[in-house]
Design goal:
It is built from no helices and 11 strands. With about 120 residues, the chain is mostly beta strands. The mean pLDDT is about 95.
Length: about 120
């Protein structure tokens, strides 16, 4: 059974950095598209970044040039590097997986990791 477990969240000052990790088990990462989401006003969750099976990356405009998504198929891990953090980046960050594409309704979710940006 596919499972995702996020880690790496915490409290950071504005302008700081964090690296979130998503550990995937029960399925080979080579065949998965992995995305990171966070809650957003008026939406259940908004997509922050996605990395496809072929390692094509996509980013929300709000985080482009500040966040970087990467994966390591050898250890079934996906990472989200958060740089130049702003208070409005404060949220629970969830990773999600799907075999089809980055642009689907994801069905497999982790439990989330809290990121708090505050001085």
């Amino acid at each position: 059974q596919l499972q995702l477990v996020e880690s790496g969240g915490g409290l950071v000052q504005p302008g700081g950095s964090l690296r979130l990790s998503c550990a995937i088990s029960g399925f080979t990462l080579d065949y998965l598209n992995i995305a990171w989401f966070r809650p957003a006003p008026g939406k259940e969750r908004e997509g922050v970044a996605c990395i496809s099976r072929s390692e094509i990356t996509h980013y929300a405009d709000a985080v482009k040039d500040r966040f970087n998504i990467a994966k390591d198929n050898a250890v079934n891990m996906v990472y989200l590097q958060l740089n130049s953090l702003k208070p409005e980046d404060t949220a629970i960050y969830y990773c999600a997986a799907d075999r089809s594409s980055c642009f689907v309704k994801f069905k497999n979710w982790g439990q989330g990791t809290q990121v708090t940006v505050s001085s």
